[in-house]
Amino acid sequence: MGDYDWDIQSNTNRWSDQLYRIYGLEPQSLNMSYEEFISRIHPDDRERISAVHAAAYASGDTYQMIERIVRPDGEVRYLSSNGEVMLDDEGKPTRMRGTCVDITDRVVAEEAAASAREAEVWHRQALEVNDTIIQSLTAGIGWLENGRTDTAVGHLEQTLAAARHLVNDWLRPGGDFGPGDLVRSVPANAADLLPIDTSDAAAAADPASSSEPAADGAQPRVVIVDDSDDVRALLRAQLEMDGRFEVVGEADDGTAAVEVAREQQPDLMVLDLAMPRMDGLTALPLLREVAPGARIVVLSGFDPLTVGPKVLAAGASRCMEKGFRMKVADVLAEVLQEDESGALA
């Protein structure tokens, strides 16, 4: 522990010998003016530390802070500092004095412990994914290869439900997340190890094969927003096969979705939540602003019970979960029949 006493008017700073040693300096080797002191604070901490001092200087209050310093040899140390401002009879600041404690060993130990806890969490999650997801998928694929389609679909449905349960467990407690928290570092397809041929889905989307002919007059115009190429292809195929809607645009993240919505002014949008650059929660109010006539249906892999209240509060008309037997076209048709309160028109 070292102590300091800064005379504000003369800008001279008396440091104890131990404080010089903490900073990696020979005791009393130089006058530690405020500018000299600030130059030895870690660059990323300087603005914050100056603000703490300025607030104490203006108010006369005591202060506490943790700052990083950089020694002459480049070593970074962590200090816990406290201080007080001394005032003259007129209430004008004259001195600022306090103590500094080198807490580097404690901080390093805490960071090591936190890293170990994080590694343990990743280890546990890897085991859960293996036991709950990978093995069940393996069984489903095996049944599919043996011609047991119904059994395979049952396994896949169970796997999807289990995966959603794991995601709910791993999300912040109580669904404590907001706009920006669901931004992906990479698009969904960037993780694909094998290319998936979606040509069959495109062929199936031929309007001539639609089981329900398009209604007379203009069809409701739809924009699909999802960072997965495969999901967008599937949704386009489903909607075009249904025959009641016209897909007029696609986007793979929230930023692109805003531009497409501004340009196309669709009647309906199908919106994913976890996407690169801008997530769905952030995009929702922007989409309502640039395309006020569009009804937005959120289609997400997250449990609607977890994310539903948030997306509805942000302006979505409906929240659906990705999974088996998604009747997106029917939901879009229902949404068009609802008024703004959600009641059927």
CATH class annotation of the largest domain = Alpha Beta
How confident overall, as mean pLDDT?
Answer: 82
**Main structural class:** alpha/beta
Percent helix, as a range, is 40-55%
Question: Could you characterize the architecture of this molecule?
Answer:
β1 (2-7) and β2 (12-15) form a beta hairpin. This protein folds into 3 domains: 2-102, 2-Layer Sandwich (Beta-Lactamase); 108-170; 199-337, Rossmann fold (3-Layer(aba) Sandwich). The longest helix has 42 residues, at 104-145. 44% of the residues lie in helices and 20% in strands. The strands form 3 sheets. It has a 5-stranded antiparallel β-sheet, with helices on both faces. The chain is elongated and about 85 Å long. α4 runs antiparallel to α5. The protein is an alpha/beta fold and 345 residues long.
Highlighted features:
12 strands, 345 residues, Rossmann fold, Beta-Lactamase, five-stranded antiparallel sheet, 11 helices, 3 domains, elongated
Topology:
Elements: E1 2-7, E2 12-15, H1 17-22, H2 34-39, H3 46-59, E3 63-70, E4 76-87, E5 93-102, H4 104-145, H5 149-170, E6 183-184, H6 199-204, E7 221-225, H7 229-242, E8 246-251, H8 254-264, E9 268-271, E10 275-276, H9 280-290, E11 295-300, H10 304-313, E12 318-321, H11 328-337
Parallel strand pairs: 6-10, 7-8, 7-9, 9-11, 11-12
Antiparallel strand pairs: 1-2, 1-5, 3-4, 4-5
Helix pairs in contact: 4-5, 8-9
Question: Summary?
Answer:
This protein is an alpha/beta fold. It has helices at 17-22, 34-39, 46-59, 104-145, 149-170, 199-204, 229-242, 254-264, 280-290, 304-313, 328-337, and strands at residues 2-7, 12-15, 63-70, 76-87, 93-102, 183-184, 221-225, 246-251, 268-271, 275-276, 295-300, 318-321.
